[in-house]
Amino acid sequence: MDGPLDEGELIKLLTKSSEIFESEPQVLDVEGECVVVGDIHGDKESVVKALDLLEQNRVLIFLGDYVDRGPYQLESISALLKAKIENPSKLILLRGNHESRSMNLYYGFYDVVLSRYSQALYELFVDVFSKMPVCAVLDGKIICLHGGIAEGLESIEQLRKLPKGDDDPVDPIYVQVLWNDPDESVASFAPSYRGPGIRLFGALVLENFLKKNGLKMLVRAHEPQPEGFRFMFGNRLLSLFSCRYYGIKPAAALLRENEIKILDLG
Fold first, then answer.
1. What is the C-alpha separation between 43 and 63, in angstroms, rounded?
2. CATH code for position 227
3. Handedness of CA 264, 250, 35, 143 (dihedral sign)
4. Which residues are bridge partners to 264 per DSSP?
5. Number of domains the chain contains
6. Which of 45, 109, 209, 228 is most deeply packed, by most CB within 10 A?
7. Nearest to 213 by CA among 133, 138, 132
8. In what order do the strands lie in the sheet with 27-30?
9. Minimal CA–CA distance to 182: which of 134, 250, 239, 97?
10. Is residue 252, in this structure, part of any structural domain at all?
């Protein structure tokens, strides 16, 4: 992975990335073999290992949270955007809850950018984040997004209609898709420890959504997992975490036909 880019190079990278994301729909339909990667949070080692998998003729999907917290935030997001420009149809970068202005101000990415570059450059990052798609659907059967099922979300079509361009999403469904968590002690929806407007969802919520949309499974990220992954709800939900900080063993998942293989990114 290369070192930090100069501001002029980053401006070009961000401008081109913004154009690509703006041209993509909120929901990307994908066919064939895929590798899915969870939260990165500035873990450049996981980024390098995951991007190596691009060479094996498969689609690579990241579930968001590229920045904040970790020590190599700029290096990680720059490498991912460069790879996106080089492989626009093979690399999918979804939006996570940390791809927003408010989270960057609180959890570090804003300060990281301003320590090396200008406020204007940070604004370009915000623009790029606001245009990232929110969801990918694999072979019409597996839905991939950052957080979880939102209260009031009945159809994938609702996700396709979500607006792009908000620094911090305001649509309740958009917010919850980025922020919600599964909970085995909850039947339907319940308030979340993460704050107002965010929900915990149970197995019944997931089952109903999958059934209504002809889906088999949800793959999401958002929560640290000691082993890098966790199956829930009778294996109908897979959580991934791909950042090695917090003492976690970073993982990704290879999805092909009816098989799921957990990959070690450590």
1. 14
2. 3.60.21.10
3. positive
4. 251
5. 1
6. 109
7. 138
8. 27-30, 135-138, 142-144, 217-220, 237-240, 229-232
9. 239
10. yes
Task: Give the pair of three-digit tokens for residue 124.
Answer: 């370009």
List pLDDT tens digits, range 188-215: 999 999 999 999 999 999 999 999 999 9
Helix axes 119-131, 7-23, angle to 10 degrees: 20
- pTM for the model stands at 0.97
Active site residue 98: yes
Q: Which residue has the tokens 């729909």?
A: 25
Q: Mean pLDDT throughout 79-88?
A: 98
In tens, the pLDDT along 23-48 reads 999 999 999 999 999 999 999 999 99
DSSP secondary structure letter of residue 149: P
In a domain, 237, yes or no: yes
Whole-number Å distance between alpha carbons of 70 and 93: 18
37 is in which domain, residue-wise? 24-264
Q: Is 6 contained in some domain?
A: no
CB atoms within 10 A of CB 168: 16
Please check whether residue 179 is in contact with residue 196, taking contact to mean a CB–CB distance below 8 angstroms: no
Per-residue pLDDT tens digits for 223-257: 999 999 999 999 999 999 999 998 999 999 999 98
With a CB cutoff of 8 Å and minimum separation 6, the contacts of 260 are 238, 253, 254
Look up residue 67 and give its amino acid: V
Amino acid at 56: Q
**Torsion on CA atoms 54, 255, 99, 107, rounded to nearest 10:** -100
